[in-house]
Design brief:
Length: 625
């Protein structure tokens, strides 16, 4: 048995499950790993594998199967058949022994489970590039073939990466060898059943699910109605641990894409599904308060948490702290929670600085299973309607009622690898959609590299708790808290290094959780699900009204055209050139970027000059008065 992995340093939990199942039906297992295998990983796999082939480079190369087969034949000369497979699939979702027992009666020289996958559509601009070569799905080669001259000739130079598996059956049958398929898939999608007919394959007891079902570009899956959540549910019904599946995917799929593909949105009722069930979870709430006039609403919501929660209130002003102390003393007499009031330095980081610095001991502690992050801060730049809806949206979708909170906590109780829950991106009253990174993506890439976060970042908008409120396991934030942040990091000096650090941390929550092996869920109550879905459907319908094709094609066209700006002449000409003459656009892009930077510098200079003139005028008026 030869099991290959796609990329260096990524022996996922799903691969461990696969190796455990393969071990039970194999005489020997050889792991093909790109680059050196870490000693701690090798120790973990010690009982599951017999040998390791460490290849050059950081990506899988199908040519590595040849030396692995030679290694097998030299060390175990009595082997009658060799399985060529790898982490191109999730599973098995059933015992593999019956499959091998059934195929033992076959006279085929080579047998497989599915036809080799053809080259699949790629979307590099959206973060889903083409995969040149991938581990084989599941092909079994018998002694009559792997000791033949035709087999050794076939392993000579090949025309292109990834062609080995696709050419195997045709070339070996042409050379006179017999081939058989373990399952009759001819009545399914003949071109690529692994991707386009996974539910049908599970129904006929194919024990593997193609990895691409969960890792492809979501609008592409949407076009063909490949519903990842339903396929995962079928796997779960057959005994596959879904928490392991989600956790493994969280380490290698961009968070928003994973949230979409697996349907990780829970619409929760205000009535507890299990009203008599208590919660054994230890809970802390970290609440930043600068708007004392609205504190009653926060305190009312905190009472929905189970008895015994520890509440940490932070504020930055002594006068505010004195008012809060009186309110908290009265509040504490009416519930079973404990509280602690902390006064923190003034910081542009506001609630995020108080969370990651002022309450670092809380979120680093092993004392709490969950930490609830809330805030009630002033927002004078928002209209009253927007502020009112924003607060409703955040609090209703996290702490709507005692029954709602019970249902939310049960998500963590049932899903051990669920790391964080928060409301979906707010879009009613806000123009966040399409620009969720807020120009912070380059900063996010640099900080991710510095913190060791290898989870791919979403290309357009990250999956993030916009608004800075969530419920999460402290372990899911360890990647973000391993650095000892200071309040100074949120000032202007820190902004030169990190961008706006508070907004950056908010946008890296889901990627940090994924790096730690945790996934995120978004949560809504029924009222906001009705408001949000209908508003979103109407807006998307309007946005697509001027483009043709399926959404995946419409999105591709809009991305090729590029940023519209305000639809001025320059923007329209640039869009026309990008769409119809991409090579010309590529040639002029460096000059365009230089001009754009110059425009931004001049604009910033004009703003500074205007502010200085305004300040000078104010001083002159003060002197004259």
């Amino acid at each position: 048995m030869i099991y290959a992995v796609r990329a260096a340093g990524r022996i996922e939990e799903t691969s461990v499950l696969a190796l455990e199942a393969l071990r039970r039906v194999s005489t020997a297992v050889v792991l093909v790993h790109p680059g050196p295998l870490a000693s701690e990983v090798r120790a973990r796999l010690d009982d599951l594998i017999d040998d390791v082939i460490e290849t050059d480079g950081e990506e899988f190369d199908s040519e590595a199967y040849a030396p692995a087969m030679e290694r097998l034949r030299r060390r175990w000369p009595a082997i009658d058949e060799i399985v060529l497979t790898g982490d191109s699939w999730f599973g098995p979702v059933a015992d593999l022994a019956p499959l091998f027992e059934r195929m033992a009666d076959s006279a085929a020289d080579v047998w497989d489970v599915l036809p080799a996958a053809p080259p699949r559509e790629a979307f590099p601009g959206e973060g889903f590039p083409a995969i040149a070569d991938r581990p084989w799905f599941f092909t079994v080669v018998r002694r009559t073939l792997f000791e033949s001259a035709a087999w050794h000739r076939w392993w000579g130079p090949t025309s292109a990466a990834g062609e080995r598996e696709r050419s195997l059956v045709a070339e070996m049958t042409a050379a006179g060898f017999a081939h058989e398929r373990a399952f009759d898939t001819t009545r399914f999608h003949a071109h690529d059943p692994g991707l386009f007919a996974p539910e049908d394959l599970l129904d006929v007891d194919v024990p593997f699910v193609d990895r691409a079902v969960f890792t492809s570009y979501p609008p592409f899956l949407d076009r063909f109605a490949i519903i990842g959540s339903e396929i995962a549910a079928m796997m779960g019904e057959r005994g596959y641990p879904l928490d392991v599946l989600r956790s493994s995917l969280a380490t290698c799929v961009a968070p928003k894409a994973l949230n979409t593909t697996l349907g990780l949105l829970s619409v929760l009722s205000d009535e507890a599904v299990e009203p008599d069930a208590g919660s054994a979870l230890s809970i802390a709430a970290v609440v930043h308060v600068s708007d004392v006039d609205e504190i009653d609403e926060v305190l009312r919501r905190l009472q929905f948490l189970p008895s015994g929660a520890s509440v940490f209130i932070t504020t930055t002003e002594g006068v505010t702290a004195a008012r809060l102390e009186r309110l908290l003393e009265a509040w504490a007499t009416t519930n079973a929670h404990t509280y602690e009031l902390r006064v923190t330095p003034q910081s542009p980081g506001r609630d995020m600085a108080d969370y990651f610095v002022g309450c670092r001991d809380v979120i680093q502690s092993d004392q709490y299973d969950l930490v609830v992050k809330l805030h009630m801060r002033r927002a004078p730049w928002k209209t009253m309607n927007r502020l009112r809806y924003f607060r409703r949206y955040q609090f209703d979708n996290l702490l709507s009622s005692p029954g709602y909170v019970r249902n939310l906590l049960s998500l963590f109780e049932k899903e051990e690898r669920l790391g964080v829950v928060f409301p979906p991106m707010i879009h009613v009253g806000y123009a966040t959609m399409g620009r969720g990174w807020a120009l912070l993506e380059p900063h996010a890439e640099r900080l991710s590299k510095r913190l060791g976060i290898r989870v791919p970042l979403d290309a357009v908008s990250p999956l993030a708790p916009y608004g800075g409120m969530w419920v999460g396991r402290p372990a899911a934030f360890r990647v973000l808290t391993q650095r000892r942040w200071t309040f100074a990091d949120y000032g202007w000096k820190g902004e030169r290094r990190f961008g706006h650090l508070a907004h950056l941390q908010e946008r890296l929550v889901s990627a940090a959780a994924g790096q730690a092996g945790y996934y995120c869920r978004t949560v809504l109550n029924y009222a906001h699900a009705e408001i949000g879905y209908t508003a979103l459907e109407y807006k998307v319908d309007q946005m697509f009204s001027t483009t043709r094709g399926w959404p995946v094609e419409q999105i591709g066209f809009l991305h090729r055209a590029g940023y519209t700006g305000y639809g001025g002449t320059v923007a329209l000409v640039r869009m026309y050139v990008r769409t119809n003459h991409p090579r010309v656009a590529d040639a002029f892009r460096p000059a365009y970027r230089v001009a754009l930077r110059a425009h931004r510098v001049l604009s910033a200079g004009r703003r500074v000059a205007s502010r200085l003139r305004s300040e000078r005028g104010e001083k002159e008026r003060e002197v004259s008065s």
